[in-house]
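[audit] Reproducing an earlier prediction to check determinism. Same input, same settings, fresh worker. If the tokens differ from the archived copy the diff job will pick it up downstream; this log only records the rerun itself.
[audit] input (259 residues):
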Amino acid sequence: MTITTLEDKLKPLRHQLNTHKLYSVLNNLKDVSVFMEQHVYAVWDFMSLLKALQNQLTTTTLPWVPVANPATARFINEIVLGEESDINELGVAQSHFEMYLEAMDQIDADTNQIQLLVSNLQNGLSVTEALTKVKLNTETLKFVEFTFKVIDTKEAHKIAAAFTFGREDVIPDMFFQIINQSKTNSNSFSKLTYYLKRHIELDGDEHGPLSLKMIEELCGQDTTKWNDVLDVSKLALQHRITLWDGIYNLITSPTLEEA
């Protein structure tokens, strides 16, 4: 299998994601708030996918020894640099997760639950334990659980599949749809717009293409690994679509519309 073949097989799911009805119902700041209160968990768990790859593909233990593929290690380290300590719109070093929380604060979206999750993790709770103590939409919970299920395999090619085809390779198109179709004045959520455009810039121009090369290097001529990547990628996209379904249902629920 090749990257081109793999991408062809994923086209139906990607089309379903890029044409999702969620984008058309982001009509006001209340809708955007609901979106962000669920999507923030995908922003958070992305970092664990990235760190799992860093653990697998770079040297993070002592004593240091050379890695098998310096080009892949450089790619992962560059993404860690950008995601964990990028420059925000004010020129200050900040993680993308922290940027997202500030963007939520800007429009008065509720950050209490995600902050509680982080606090519980900092206090030593496992991911499973911490997740049980926050109020999560079912689809959002399943999305996060899938992420950590892939991480728990400790198989670099599977983690890379979820990272590449569930995140890096689809984020530019997905975030473009949010900006393009949202009927809300983007000046009202300038911090979110900066975050989305920053990801479109990084993932579309740099990270996306490099992540595809990483997949090729990890799979090589191993048919089993290529099939694993296809399976994990399909599941990752399906979970993203289901996450979008859940957020759409929250936004269009009578309770929200009447609020």
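[audit] rerun output stored. Observation attached for the diff report: Strands lie at 86-87, 93-94.
[audit] end
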